[in-house]
From TrEMBL:
GO cellular component: cytosol
Name of this chain's protein: Ribosomal RNA small subunit methyltransferase A
Subcellular location: Cytoplasm
Keyword Signal part of the UniProt annotation: no
Keyword presence, rRNA processing: yes
Binding site for S-adenosyl-L-methionine: N29, L31, G56, E77, D102, N126
Database matches in SMART domains: rADc (SM00650)
Main localisation: cytoplasm
E.C. number: 2.1.1.182
Pfam family of the protein (one): RrnaAD
Domain named Ribosomal RNA adenine methylase transferase N-terminal: residues: 36-211
Catalytic function, reaction form: adenosine(1518)/adenosine(1519) in 16S rRNA + 4 S-adenosyl-L-methionine = N(6)-dimethyladenosine(1518)/N(6)-dimethyladenosine(1519) in 16S rRNA + 4 S-adenosyl-L-homocysteine + 4 H(+)
Amino acid sequence: MKEKIASPKKTREIINQYNFVLQKKYGQNFLIDEYVLNKIIEAANITKEDMVIEIGPGIGSLTQYLAENAREVVAVEIDKQLIPILNDTLKEYDNIEIINEDILKLDLNPLIKEKNNNKPVKIVANLPYYITTPIIMGLFEDEVPIDSITVMIQKEVAQRMQAEPGTKDYGALSLAVKYYSKPYIVANVPQNCFIPRPNVDSAVIQLKKYEKPIIEVQDKKLMFQIIRASFNQRRKTMLNSVSNQLDIDKEKVKLTLEKMDKPTNIRGEALTLEEFALFTEILTHLNG
Ligand code: SAM
């Protein structure tokens, strides 16, 4: 590999050379740890066949590793101050395209159609932590063709994504992620692997997307409304939260739980994704 961007020395050098002022509002914490970068590349299983989309390349620390291993990298960066820097730090690579856009506003579908024949891409990133959930849910909900998402995120959020029923971390996010993908925490990453150091711990998580949903549910929107209502007030029973928040007849909710052989004082945290789907199906039929 050409000289690595991701060393503490080189990172400081680039920041100083361009008088770059780090933007806290964009969650800019640059990776400086080679071991972690190799771990990300290895987990993402990138080959010369792959098109990779990186969200937030920063000064190019991870982009460089991606370009070495992938066929093509498209990197989407919101901060226009970083574009000339990236054009310079990555100038030796001819398989990188840098797009100056807000990932939350960019439709990736036409890009993947044009550049990858609509075949699934790999998403790899050290995400800006302030928008982790909207980015990931946006990718899933917009039905972007994705093979896997391998990303650095805040450790607590990674734990919530991977959490199982009955644990304190289990919630609406765990269920949304599990509906679309199989989560796996690849590594925990301490604060000293970044410049500047973030004030939270981090983890690399991989979400391997299912080719088709693992559960069947007619009214997906209602299922996620029920899930959100069940966890909005965690300490309340499902009977109360669902009937009050979604304005559904309490008797119908009670009957649904009884048909599922569940106690009527059960809380959302005890239900699996399959059970939320079943709950939704039964309730829909009672309403219908
Ligand atoms: N990939 C680099 C690294 O690992 O060193 C930088 C990671 S840094 C945690 C997050 C990056 O995302 C920053 O470069 C930031 O400017 C960029 N970013 C923040 N919000 C964004 C958005 N809405 N769309 C695209 N990029 C964004």
